[in-house]
Amino acid sequence: MRLPIVRRSHIRFDASCSDHHLRWLYIPIFSFSTPITIQYLMFCVSFVLLNALRFLSVTSMILCIVSSWVVIALSFEDFGFYFFTAFNHLFLSLEAVILIASEFGIPYKLFAEFLPLLGPKSSLATLGLLQLISGFCVLGDLHHELIDPDCAGNPHFWKLLLATGTLLLTVSLFNLVASLSYRSKMRGTLRLERDQGAVALRSQRQKEKRIMEISPPLYAV
After folding, report:
1. Which residues cross the membrane (predicted)?
2. Average pLDDT, the chain
3. Is pLDDT at 20 greater than 80 in this prediction?
């Protein structure tokens, strides 16, 4: 008995899928029906690099959440409750949670309608700027009394702040540079290419074909 053959197109990411909250589950890496060209290889390389950058972004924001709550806990233990310090780090951790959710596009409707600058049709410029600000906020805690081992009781706490802030600044710069590199409307947004991979190349070729069919040649009378 022969088993049925499942075509690649049946499990391919579909941008028009009605279940927008499940779109993140359909993440193809390569498209076997696309001819291998230099442009195709560039799309594959960019797909891998962009998803590696997404992994670093999520990691940096998780470290931001951890460091923020450690500052709140140690500050409350050694110096008592101070509203503005607690609110500052609470807001920073909530911002990190929102940025992590935006990297996966969950929930889709929230980012598509209410936070379009972090939505699927936006670049990574807003994400990079928010990470840059978060990195400065984390590094700003290095002057705090908590880094003193006599007060905090942990001589290695400053290393967590330094590593988190440095990683946030580095990832934010990479996101800003990537946003400047993906400004072509023909290629689509950076998030689209990062999620769809080589399928975005097929969409680009279809757009070019439609433009050539609609636009008349220059030599036409």
Report:
1. 24-48, 55-75, 81-101, 162-182
2. 73
3. no
Three-state SS annotation for the chain: CCCCCCCHHHCCCCCCCCCHHHHHHCCCCCCCCCCCCHHHHHHHHHHHHHHHHHHHHHHHHHHHHHHHHHHHHHHHHHHCCCHHHHHHHHHHHHHHHHHHHHHHCCCHHHHHHHCHHHCCCCCCHHHHHHHHHHHHHHHHHHHCHHHCHHHHCCCCHHHHHHHHHHHHHHHHHHHHHHHHHCCCCCCCCHHHHHHHCCHHHHHHHHHHHHHHHHCCCCCCC
pLDDT above 90 as % of the chain: 24
Residue at 31: amino acid letter: S
Asked if 93 and 69 count as a contact pair (C-beta separation under 8 A), the reply is yes
- In this prediction the pTM is 0.69
Half-sphere exposure of 129 (CA within 13 A, CB side): 7
Domain boundaries, the chain: 54-202
Q: Which one has a higher pLDDT value, 116 or 75?
A: 116
Contact predicate 96/65, CB 8 Å: yes
Length, in residues, of the chain: 221
pLDDT value at 174 more than 70: yes
Read off the tokens for 110.
């929230």
